[in-house]
Design goal:
Its main location: membrane. α16 links the parallel β4 and β5. The protein is α/β, with parallel strands linked by helices. 57% of the residues lie in helices and 7% in strands. It has 17 helices and six strands. Strands 3-2-1-4-5-6 form a six-stranded parallel sheet. α4 runs antiparallel to α5, α5 runs antiparallel to α8 and α6 packs antiparallel against α7.
């Protein structure tokens, strides 16, 4: 590789790292995305003069045009509520691309350094798992009828473990045999890796998808990094390692937020329980919008807990308008965000930022939880498992041990909800039956609008 190409790859890598650092804060995240995007454009353009890329220019341009065009159109049109599905799909495409690079290199049957060949196989394995697993995650998030819920059967973990061991064993065989491996063996290795990605994701319920998405994001980054080493491409190596490291850290944070070790995420049907769940006592008590508006308008402190239901209703703008109404009346209003609220990491932060909610009134779980005891009203809109007190009390609950927002400690709780169903996870929420809780039924945006109208009349 000539010095000219290396310098531009290094510049692209620096832009990736700076961009990722900027994305650490909502204030600078937009700038970070632009910087990383410029780095990607730079890396793509300089690849055209890479000494190993001297044919098929037309095919490359057509591929970039088609892929870029689809990404541009879908990126502009995708609804915020569908963003988790798009992230899952893009994760899968990245993993699939890395696996495809490995397949091309291994099909060539040319002599490779043993370390390079091992990394090619490792990238193929991880990339293929990320590809098929992400497609299943996409289907679950999209609510496809065939993939709805968690698919579990007897001895599933043993079958998955056996499948994984056989796949790794075949991969090691390919990695250590030089060019002495057959095409059928290679085909079978990829088929088993893809099958493991499917089998690994099928048992996982929708409530755990944020962890799965961040895990596959890490897988994709690592696979790209490995294949960058195979192609001797520094930009791919650095970008892949940065994405893989960031994804791994995010996965650990998400798992910690759900009080689940990474091994449990990887090798168990998490969310599965063996005992009988604690019965719900009490009943749901409804409240009308005028009474809820009075309760909040005359409160000293209101804490708002947004969840996926707010995203579905696109109620974030009305909720911010309502917040300003309360602030004008002298009410202290804060937003409490659970790390796994929504269906992807940072989902609620993005929605609130889109509505213009200032960052200084948005708090993470650790920062806000002690304040619920001093809150007059906790307004839950579209959130479910992250405020379910059963996570503290019932060892047989699928979410037992998961840190939750202590909404039930507030003097009054108002839950905005469409109906009395158990929600996406299928777990009954004991908060909804508590004595201090009132249910405000309806679409999130319509309810927020009604609350605003009633507050203006006070």
């Amino acid at each position: 590789m000539n010095l000219f190409v290396e310098i531009f790859y290094l510049a692209a890598a620096v832009l990736f790292i700076l961009g990722l650092k900027q994305m650490a804060s909502p204030v600078t995240a937009r700038r970070g995305i632009v910087w990383a995007g410029i780095g990607m454009v730079l890396a793509t353009l300089i690849t055209f003069v890479h000494p190993h890329v001297n044919t098929n220019y037309l095919l490359i341009i057509i591929g970039i045009a088609v892929g870029g065009g689809i990404a541009w159109k879908t990126g502009k049109e995708v609804a915020m509520t569908d963003m988790p599905q798009m992230i899952a799909l893009y994760n899968g495409m990245g993993g699939g691309a890395a696996a495809a690079i490995a397949a091309v290199e291994l099909i060539k049957h040319h002599e490779m350094d043993p370390v390079v060949q091992l990394l090619a196989v490792a990238g193929a394995l991880i990339g293929a798992i990320a590809f098929s697993g992400s497609l299943i995650a996409f289907g679950k998030l999209q609510g496809l009828k065939q993939l709805r819920g968690a698919f579990r059967f007897k001895n599933q973990q043993r079958i998955n473990a056996a499948l994984f061991i056989v796949t790794v064993w075949m991969g090691l065989g390919i990695a250590t045999s030089g060019t002495d491996y057959g095409m059928f063996t290679l085909f079978l290795f990829f088929a088993l890796a893809l099958a493991f990605g499917v089998m690994m994701t099928l048992p996982i319920g929708g409530a755990d998808m944020p962890v799965v998405i961040s895990l596959y994001n890490a897988f994709t980054g690592l696979a790209v990094g490995f294949e960058g080493y195979v192609l001797d491409n520094p930009a791919m190596m650095i970008a892949g390692i940065v994405v893989g490291s960031a994804g791994t850290l995010l996965t650990q944070l998400m798992a910690k937020a759900m009080n689940r070790p990474i091994t449990n995420v990887l090798f168990s049907n998490f969310g599965e329980t063996t005992g009988e769940a604690q019965e719900v006592s009490g009943s749901m008590k409804a409240i009308e919008a005028p009474d809820a508006a009075i309760m909040m308008a005359f409160a000293e402190k209101v804490i708002i807990i947004p969840g996926y239901g707010m995203a579905v209703a696109q109620a974030q703008h009305k909720i911010w308008e309502m917040t300003k109404q309360l602030q004008e009346r002298g009410v202290t209003v804060k937003f409490a965000i659970h790390p796994v609220a929504g269906r992807m990491p940072g989902h609620m932060n993005v929605l609130l930022a889109e509505a213009g909610v200032p960052y200084n009134i948005i708090y993470d779980l650790d920062e806000i939880n002690e304040e619920f005891r001093t809150a007059d009203v906790a307004l839950v809109i579209g959130a479910n498992d992250v405020v379910n007190p059963i996570a503290r009390t019932d060892p047989n609950s699928p979410i037992y041990g998961m840190p939750i927002l202590n909404a039930d400690y507030a003097k009054n709780v108002i839950v905005v909800k469409r109906g009395q169903g158990a929600g996406f996870s299928g777990i009954e929420n004991h908060l909804f039956f508590a004595d201090n809780c009132r249910m405000l039924y309806g679409d999130g945006q319509a309810v927020a609008n009604e609350l605003i109208s009633n507050m203006k009349e006070l």
